[in-house]
Amino acid sequence: MSLPSPLPEERFGFIGLGSMGAPMAKNLSNAVSMLRVFDIAGTDERAPEGTVCCHSLEEIIGSCDTIFLSLPDGKSVIQTAQEMVLIEEHSCNTLVDTSTIGVDAVKHVEPIVEKAKIVYLDCPVSGGQSGAQAGTLTFMGSGSESRFRQLDEILQSMAANIFYVGNRCGQGQAMKLLNNFLSGTAMLATSEAYAFGMSQELDPQQMFEVLNVSTGVNSATLDKFPKQVVTNRYAAGFSNTMMSKDISLFRESVLKAQTLSPVGKIVQEYWEQFSELEPLKDFTQIYPFLKKKHRNKE
What we know:
three-stranded mixed beta sheet; Rossmann fold; six-stranded parallel beta sheet; 13 helices; alpha/beta; N-(1-d-carboxylethyl)-l-norvaline Dehydrogenase, domain 2
C-alpha cells in the first residue's frame, strides 16, 4: 500500500528537549528542513545541533504546522495544550504527542486542541534513551489514521517500528502502558529467578543462554540482565521514577476498566518503593535494590 506523503513545505517543531526529546529531535532534524525546537526549561542549552531555537511557546506555535511533544507527564501536556489554544496567531494543525501520560490525560487533551482545529495524535514511544539516540524507537500511534499514515516517512527518522493501534486517541497510551507493565514485571520476576540461580552456583552467562531458548524468555533475560545487571553497567537509560509512573498509570487504567489484576498491585508496590527510596536510578538497578531489601529482612 502506498503511503500519503507529508504536506509540501510542511514546517515541523519539537517541544520538550529532555533525555528522550533531545535525541528524538536530533534524528527528526535530519529528515526535515529547519526543525524548530523549544523547551520551557531553556532551549539554547538543550537544542540539538542543526535545529532552530524558539524562545517561547508563541514563537514555535506560530511558525510550525506539525509539532511533536515529548513531555514528562500528563500535567505538563495538559498545561501546554491549554496555553497553545489561547494563542490566536498560530499555524499548528497537528500535535503529535510522544509523551506517556495515560488514557485519562489523553481524553482531557484531545478536546482542548480540537477546539483550535488541531489534529491530536496519541503516539507514545518505547525503546528508552538508547533507542531515542539510535533512532530505533517503537511508535504506537492512535487517532486519525490518514494523518498518522501521512507522517510515516517522518516517523521513520526516529523509529525502527511504527504501529497504528487504533482510531481512538488513548489506545496508543493503553498499548504503551501494558508494555511497560510487562517490562517492569519481567524485571522483578527475573531478579528473583537470577538470585536463586546464583545461589545454586549457576554460571550467569549460561543461565541466560538457557532461558533465552526456553519458555522463561522475556525482555529482561534477553537484554536487561545480560547487558546491564550481569555486567554491573546499570545504564539502560530509563529511570525507576519513570517506570513507577508508568506502572501507576497502568494500574489506574486497569482499576477503571475493572479488568483482571492478580499481580499488578504487588508490582506497583515494589516499583513505588524503589523510586521513593532511590529516585532517578536506572530501572535495571531494581536487582541490587531487591537484594539489599532482602538482606535487611534477614
